[in-house]
Amino acid sequence: MNHCVNDIAVQGAAPLFFSLTFDDLVHLLEAEFINPGQTISLTGAGGCDITQTVISPLDDSALSRIYPFLRLWKKLRWSMSDLDKFLRVFAANGVNGGCLLALADFVWLQLR
Fold first, then answer.
1. How many domains does the chain have?
2. Which residues of 40-75 are buried (b: 16+ CB within 10 A; e: fewer)?
3. Residue 3 phi/psi, 5° resolution?
4. What range does the domain containing 79 cover?
5. What is the pLDDT of residues 41-62, one digit of tens each?
6. What are the CA-CA distances from residue 34 to residues 51, 95, 111 (Å)?
7. What is the rounded CA–CA span in Å between residue 78 and residue 71?
8. Of the candidates 20, 31, 25, which has an alpha carbon nearest to the alpha carbon of residue 85?
9. Residue 11's pLDDT is what?
């Protein structure tokens, strides 16, 4: 299934997607947690215009990983690469309560 970034925004993630730069979108899709096997790609990105970019194939499974990833990335202000590494270890079953508890412990240890 192909989705334009504008279409995804209409489906409820507008603040998160429209705050991304084109480079952010590229880094997002490089994240193994988001794009295992690197099967999702960008097309139609003439001049790196994110509003004209098509993400394909993009399914509900990928969207269910993207939304919490972006929320955590904005909140934690970690690099996407660091967040990707953390989630690949602690979110094998998705971003759930157990993952968030592990994240809270990890952040607490970082601050000590």
1. 1
2. bebeebeeeebeebbbeebeeebbebbbbbbebbee
3. -135, 135
4. 3-111
5. 888 756 566 777 788 888 888 8
6. 20, 12, 27
7. 11
8. 31
9. 46
Q: Which long-range contacts (CB under 8 A, 24 or more apart) does 84-87 make?
A: 84/31, 84/32, 84/33, 84/34, 87/33
Under 8 Å CB-to-CB from 27, ≥6 apart: which residues? 80, 81
Query: What's the Cα-to-Cα distance from 100 to each of 35, 37, 68, rounded to whole Å?
Result: 21, 25, 11
Nearest to 51 by CA among 4, 106, 109, 2: 4
d(CA 104, CA 61): 25
- Token pair of 67, please? 């939304």
Give the per-residue pLDDT at 12: 47
Per-residue b or e along 88-104, where b marks 16 or more CB atoms closer than 10 Å to that residue's CB: eebbeeebeeebeeebe
Q: Retrieve residue 109's tokens.
A: 């240890």
Please give the pLDDT value at position 68: 94
